[in-house]
Design a protein that fits this description.
- The structure holds two protein chains of two kinds.
- Chain A is an all-alpha fold.
- Chain A has nine helices and no strands.
- Chain A is rod-shaped and about 90 Å long.
- In chain A, helix 2 packs antiparallel against helix 8 and helix 7 runs parallel beside helix 9.
- Chain B is mainly alpha-helical.
- Chain B has two domains: about 60 residues, Alpha-Beta Plaits; about 220 residues, no CATH class.
- In chain B, the strands form three sheets. Chain B has a two-stranded antiparallel sheet. Chain B has a two-stranded antiparallel sheet with strand order 2-3.
- In chain B, a hairpin with a 5-residue loop joins strand 2 and strand 3.
- In chain B, helix 3 packs antiparallel against helix 6 and helix 3 packs antiparallel against helix 10.
- The longest helix of chain B is centred in the C-terminal third of the chain and has 35 residues.
- The chains are: A mainly alpha, B mainly alpha.
- At the A-B interface, helix 2 and helix 7 of A face helix 1, helix 4, helix 5 and helix 8 of B.
């Protein structure tokens, strides 16, 4: 759309009356056309890169839901058979409030969504953050005194659009990385929980505090995982979701703490 | 030492990448891949990761003969020493780039001319000013598209550059070599490949917007043989009585404009061979510079590797 506006702008400048352009004019026009083509290419490249990164986020989410979550459901059903009397512990809030049905449901909602947020990307570029940039672009184009300066305006607008795509790419990479690391932690925790349960059975008296801690940690991670799976890259208004940043930060801190705990 | 194999079941969960970053990395699609040249020894963490992969996508392959593998990598490097060989089909000026879009709309006049001949003359004049004068501009538009998409990768150093792409392939082979020999035995920058043609020249050309192309306009121009008046027959006219009952005439130039578009497109297609020939000359000039530098670069690397290939 931006590029189309630019082309309209440049066509207005192309009302050259002479039959044949002189060499200098041709060189200038050549440079201007190249600049415009580069702007188109820049936006195209960034859009593809952003789309690819968002596809990877979707893939990571899908992997957790399809292969890790069933393992957890299996182990959670075993945990429920153990009559864990641990309500007096302060750090069990998550465990006590944990609702498997809600967690599974919320994760499964994600899998039903389209693989990428392509539509949202289009909106963020053309309606959301950069909406004002397009208005600026129109003004600048009408003020540009030559085809080359018009092409430069187009290029600078393309760079602004590219920056938005870069932000989406950065956000996607961060979420993707977080999901990947959380999933590794989650799988490890599920495996540990399975070992503890197969060793101790369903009699709560066989469980030491440390064993109970392993079970609680697993449920804890499941709850955190559910929150992370639901982090959108862009929200429904096509904006880079601000609340998601907080959730990513919380997730990263949590991951750090869990890793520290495991390594102790 | 054994090969590590990842099959198509990998769903990109990333567990192996997180737990064994020395063996696995994510590829462009987010799936896991074995780092080039990395082989499996007796590693407990790796064994655990293989057994815990949720989709059982990782397994061990056969035993690897390191000496033989190293020789295979060396052979690949030697093949790269030939550099880039640009052929005419690599820079083909295909139909996709030969399409001339429509000229600015010339339109028709309102009913204001007193005779058909004066309407026709006015139509031709408007056609000359608004469409015929834009021929060079249209040619340039077509050529720019070809230049940016096909020729520019030979004149740039960004990720789309042909040099960057070949450098990446060479870097992958060097990474494999480095993993086979042992990273600690090689210089820290062993896998870096930063070979490009003389950058100053390229950037100066880019800055001035003169990569190539200006002369292409004249090549196409030579194939375009029509004067503006040749299109007079395509200027149509129409008459109608005005409210006073007098005859009034208007012109319609759309047909002339469309004919001009087709003629320019034909000229572009006729010039295709010359454009490709010229492009090949320009491109080979700069590619030869790259190939020379690449050969020197690879000779140095091969001499380092030779110490380890007994």
């Amino acid at each position: 759309m931006l590029i189309e506006l630019a082309l309209v702008g440049t066509l207005a400048y192309s009302a050259d009356k002479s039959n044949k352009m002189d060499e200098q004019a041709l060189a200038k026009r050549s440079k201007a056309y190249t600049r415009e083509a580069e702007a188109r290419e820049l936006v195209y490249r960034k859009r593809n890169a952003a789309d690819k990164k968002m596809q990877i986020v979707a893939k990571r989410k899908r992997a957790v839901i399809e292969s890790t979550l069933p393992k957890f459901i299996e182990v959670y059903q075993k945990i429920q058979k153990i009559d864990l009397n641990i309500s007096d512990k302060n750090d069990l809030v998550v465990y006590n409030n944990f609702n498997l049905c809600n967690t599974v449901k919320s994760m499964e909602t994600v899998i039903k969504q389209p693989l990428t947020d392509k539509q949202l990307i289009t909106e963020v570029i053309f309606k959301g953050i950069t909406g004002y940039m397009i208005a600026d672009s129109k003004r600048n184009l009408s003020a540009a005194k030559s085809q080359l300066s018009a092409a430069n305006v187009v290029y600078s607008q393309a760079q602004s659009v590219a920056e938005v795509y870069d932000a989406i790419i950065g956000r996607s990479e961060r979420i993707s990385n977080l999901i990947m690391r959380m999933n590794a932690l989650f799988l490890g925790s599920i495996s540990e929980t399975e070992k503890v349960i197969s060793k101790n059975g369903t009699d709560v008296r066989a469980y030491t505090e440390h064993d109970k801690g392993i079970l609680m940690t697993c449920v804890n991670i499941a709850a955190a995982m559910s929150d992370i799976i639901n982090i959108p890259v862009l929200d429904e208004n096509g904006e880079l979701c601000r609340s998601a940043v907080e959730m990513i930060q919380t997730g990263e801190i949590y991951l750090e703490q869990m890793n520290e705990m495991i390594n102790q | 030492m054994k090969q590590i194999i990842i099959n198509e079941k990998c769903n990109g969960c990333g567990m192996c990448v997180v737990k064994c970053p020395n063996y696995f990395e994510s590829n462009d699609d987010g799936n896991a891949q074995v780092i080039k040249g990395v082989l499996a020894g007796n590693d407990a963490v790796l064994n655990t990761v293989i057994s815990e992969c949720p989709v059982k996508a990782i397994s061990f392959g056969g035993e690897v003969n390191i000496k033989q593998s190293l020789q295979e990598e060396v052979n690949k490097l030697k093949a790269f020493a030939n550099g880039l060989n640009v052929k005419r089909e690599d820079i083909a000026f295909t139909d996709a780039y030969c399409t001339v879009t429509t000229f600015p709309y010339v339109g028709s006049s309102s009913y204001e001319y007193s005779s058909s001949s004066s309407a026709e003359r006015a139509g031709l004049s408007k056609f000359r000013d608004r469409a015929y004068s834009q021929i060079d501009s249209k040619i340039l538009d077509v050529i720019t598209s070809y230049r940016v998409n096909i020729i520019k990768p030979y004149y740039s150093t960004d990720e789309k550059s042909v040099y960057t792409q070949l450098n990446k392939k060479i870097s992958d082979v060097l990474t494999a070599v480095s993993n086979l020999i042992g990273k600690n035995k090689l210089p820290s920058d062993f896998c870096n490949v930063d070979v490009y043609p003389e950058r100053d020249t390229v950037w100066k050309m880019l800055e001035k917007g003169e990569i190539i192309g200006e002369n292409f306009v004249s090549i196409v121009r030579r194939e375009f043989k029509y004067s503006a008046s040749d299109y007079q027959t395509y200027i149509d006219w129409d008459d109608m009585e005005d409210y006073r009952g007098k005859d009034k005439y208007c012109y319609r130039a759309q047909e002339a404009v469309e004919e001009l578009r087709k003629d320019v497109q034909s000229a572009v297609r006729w010039a295709r061979s010359d454009i490709e020939e010229n492009s090949l000359g320009y491109v080979n000039g700069i590619v030869n510079d790259y190939n020379r530098k690449l050969k020197t670069f690879l000779d140095k690397k091969l001499s380092i590797i030779a110490k380890f290939v007994v």
